[in-house]
Amino acid sequence: MIQPHGGSLINKDLPKVEKKRILKEIDEFETIQVNPQTSKIIKNIGFGLFSPLEGFMSENNYRYVLEHMYLENNVAWPFPIVLDISEIKAKSFNVDDRVILTDLTKNPIALMDIEDIYSYDKKEFAKKVYGTQDRDHPGVDSVFKMEERLIGGEIFIINEPTSVFPELDLKPIETRVLFKQKKWDRVVAFQTRNPPHLGHEYIQKAGLTYVDGLFINPVIGKKKVGDFLDDVIIKAYQVLIDEYYPKDRVVLSTFETEMRYAGPKE
Fold first, then answer.
1. Which of 157, 181, 204 is the last residue of a domain?
2. Which of 26, 41, 234, 265 is deepest in the core (most CB within 10 A)?
3. Is 132 among the domain residues?
4. Are 200 and 113 in the same domain?
């Protein structure tokens, strides 16, 4: 089986003892409240879906990704993973501060070591990532709705954000264990934001003729108006796997993230 992207599988989930200590001292930390989409990003960083990232990007990495679609360490990475905060909020923090990232209910999700606080150009972000500044594009519109400053730093998971489909929420380490149990040496992955259609079926079945197993990884999360609902996508794939595809040769696991509509970069 191939190595994780960047060479190592990241796991930023804190030991239970450390979590208890931080929660006991929670009132001593400043907090940053994040929306559900950012909560998913935190989870994806923390459990290795975004390996080799260990946190939100510093300015150097952000700029390198914009200009070259690589991280500073020369690992391919085409899309900035950043945390935006307001100008007012940014003034209350300094580099080397430790803060708690919470969800909208103020439930602590992660600890963050602030490594960088910086400004950015939304027009440049949109143009270099999406190739346009047209706000009719949902990804571009989301960029222009971001706060004025970005904050970078390593994160550590305190409480794992809940999953929409917990029974299908396999972490990278779990998929690797599962593939090993199934004795799959070669695996083809198929990522999608839509229910399966004939074209998808053809690609997936063709892939299965060359490998041991098929890993179907639908994107679950915020999408643009008119896209298929998450439960429709999942139910369609479950029927296909249960009733049509070869038994024990397909694994279905969700990828929970906001759809960016960035084409091949995504």
1. 157
2. 41
3. yes
4. no
